[in-house]
């Protein structure tokens, strides 16, 4: 501890006596910040005379008593504001090159110490007002401005261009208002507390007001002095002018702070850019009604340590404000003294105008409030339902998603599928994401949307796509996923891309998909059947690692159940026979679909191609035929110039095992992984167990509905319901739900009306 150079315990809820620490032992201490705590006691001489201490911040505590007469010559900054200190000002308060802030204490003012009194500090003490009688009912400030500006509200905004480094304050000559700044930027590039821009602002009539702003690394306060008591309107005006909203890394900077007025917390974690949907150079206002009781108002902007500190460079964080105005309600007709007062007539006209507008618009406001309340209640019900299912996922606002996708620009569309369009977007923190939007014409509804959130929120695996969050306060629900650079597997294999998947890549993709399914079936906290495994629902990251996506049709059920009886959903060509014909759903349906996808990866063609000869159109039938003829390797894609024959034969055999007609004969996915990685021997393929193929008329019918998606996560009619098959297999008295959602599987073997049935 004795070798400490910097010690910052700011806002740490410390409530001890300052004298309980022997600071003389900290012989190397240069920077000490204990501000915004509840520390009591006196400021001890051994602390103020500590070498080589340069920066001392003890503001906003409960320190009392008088100050020592001597301080160390190494001190350059002392903050003792907002304490209960009293007595006379020591002579060192006016030392050259020493910044001292003693605002809001109880120092006495008399002739004996008036000569060393810092400029107008008496106006900012607790019980020593510097005015004879209150005379003001308004003031306005242009933070960082250099000249008076008349605003569109008819207020005269006085310039605030005072140099306020580290720990300092300023009171105007008219003693009408003041400002105090506390804190030191860590390694700033320029040391300036005022920032500038030449940009014009389009959403305000007062663009010049927002071309400057005052920053603070910790605590920034504005004071109204000598105000008449009563109710006041406080308008704070902000615009982010330092963090751009372009596509560069500089745009990820965040400025987050709290806002207090008269000591009351008005805004927590206020983020200027977030309020403007991520847009810089855009004006945002906050208006509050407060009561002035002691002829004084305190507006406090406080940095609580959140946001970024070093983007785009050191020293640009903490609160920032462009302008503020304070004006009273119900003026009695007396104007403010001085040339910069607001017009009483204007204020009276404003009040009359407000009253008239309220009277005219009252009914419309009531109707609007009723509609808004109904919408809000519906949203709260949906939110509660979502939270009941999955806890509390990361909820994005519609404004955040709209800004991230550039208002859902057509140029950002990655693909379209059965769910709806998929957009590329960039969040405020710089993350690139894929946004799935539920189309109003989509077959996937709210239940499927909830299913996807519930399922993907419950599982985490390197071969499953990652869900960042969702948005449900828009007309169309939105899912926010990680963005995967190489798009979908079907585009990589069947599409016109620059990707040339060699043998090793294709084999590893098959292994990765198998591992993801094994996790869903056997390793996750719940048994999950995906129900829509196909090439377009497998995405590839930058390193071509596969990730299973689109969990809208997923089901999960208890370990005690042998299968679910459910309406058939999925994509033709990938459906297991027992599921397509009878609606019996188990993990073996995913195993079957995996076998088909593996064959597509090996052959470089879709599972059905109407352009080929009759006996070659259906890939699965072709694969079984070649295997029975002992010509297995003829199935491989002609683009594969080099490949491992042993691995290829093993992968084809595993794919055929996965597509056996009887589900009991298909291996579990964990065994599939073991066979692919040679942990166990591959089981011989029983040619009598080949699946019963879909009749020719069905093959021809599904070819017309087999729609190829484009781009990332595009769908291939993934929501197609095989109603003819499922309806023909229903038994009397058994009602199978054709809805794809079953979040809470039945606990018994019985069949509930309108729900999936689970068999033991």
Kindly report the oligomeric state of this protein: single chain
Helix segment count?
A: 14
Query: What's the number of domains?
Result: 3
Stated plainly, the CATH topology of the largest domain is called Transferase(Phosphotransferase), domain 1
Average pLDDT metric: 79
User: Based on CA inertia axes, which overall geometry fits?
Assistant: elongated
Tell me which CATH architecture of the largest domain applies here: Orthogonal Bundle
Q: Order the strands across the largest sheet as they lie in space.
A: 11-12-10-24-18-21
The gyration radius over C-alpha positions equals: 35 Å
Low-confidence stretches: 331-335, 337-345, 386-392, 694-760
What share of residues are in beta strands? 15-25%
**So, the CATH homologous superfamily of the largest domain?**
Transferase(Phosphotransferase) domain 1
Membrane topology: Single-pass membrane protein
EC number: 2.7.11.1
Protein name: non-specific serine/threonine protein kinase
GO molecular function: ATP binding; protein serine/threonine kinase activity
